[in-house]
Amino acid sequence: MDHIFKIIFILITAWITNRYVGSLIKRIVKKKISGESNGEKGKRAATLISIFVSISRASVWIAVVLIILSEIGINIGPLLAGAGIVGLAFGLGAKKIIEDFVGGLFIILEDQYRVGDEVKIGDIEGVVKEITLRRTVIKDENGTVYSIPNGDIKITSNKSRS
């Protein structure tokens, strides 16, 4: 019976933590990008909030599962070691995807360019139609649409900003 109360307490604490951290992330992100116009600020804030809230929630719930497993008597040491090996294998196998996500995160965080900006990325020049963590979509003056993985972007020129 003692374990049930501890598990309930852990779940309630995790729920409260997720709500608090989520609202904290929203306030911090909105404060940091408050100097931009409303349309741009809203899009950028929503993207960053979504990324950071998802990461924080996943981290909290992974910790909760491990704590609960430990509480009910399961040795989590081998689980953590196995997860480390699987994570390493996944990281090596998904290196390119992870590189694209990290590149996209920095493009958004550093505000290198936005949807609607005229940019040159490598040899491709045009208007940014879409930016995700995985890729940037550009449409050139001929109407050709290019999808560029963010991990492949090394040099950008933004012609819309001075």
What does this structure look like?
This protein has 162 residues and is α+β, with helices and mostly antiparallel strands. The protein has 2 domains: 92 residues, Orthogonal Bundle (Helix Hairpins); 41 residues, SH3 type barrels (Roll), CATH 2.30.30.60. The chain is 60% helix and 15% strand. It has a 5-stranded antiparallel β-sheet with strand order 4-3-2-1-5. Strand 1 and strand 2 form a beta hairpin. Helix 1 runs antiparallel to helix 2.
Task: Give short descriptive properties of this protein.
5 strands, 4 helices, alpha+beta, 2 domains, 162 residues, 15% strand, SH3 type barrels, single chain, five-stranded antiparallel beta sheet, Helix Hairpins
Question: Can I get a quick summary?
Answer:
Helix content is 60%, strand content 15%. A hairpin with a 3-residue loop joins strand 2 and strand 3.
